[in-house]
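Project standup — Tuesday

K.O.: blocked on the structure for the chain from last sprint. Re-posting the sequence here as requested.
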Amino acid sequence: MRFRHEPRGLRRHVVAAGSPADGRRIGDLDVGEDVWISFVIRNDQLVPVRGSTILCAGDEILALTDPERGQDLTPIFTARPGTGHADPTPA
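H.V.: unblocked you, prediction finished:
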């Protein structure tokens, strides 16, 4: 998705295999109340976004965060470097 002016707080991530998000329901992610996962794209198709939506490796997500207080979501969607496994204690 392209924006003429990308909104502040918009974050794009791809779910990595073995990341904390891989195989988990959106509602179970530890993203806090200031994050809204607005789009999930899987195999070039939009996937309905609900708390029960299960994320898969390769899914692209667009999340809106509070630009002043939003946490870094990268550890949730990224596998631990060099192992292909998620970091057991994401920041």
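K.O.: great, moving the ticket to review. The helical segments are 74-77. The first strand starts at residue 10 and ends at 14.
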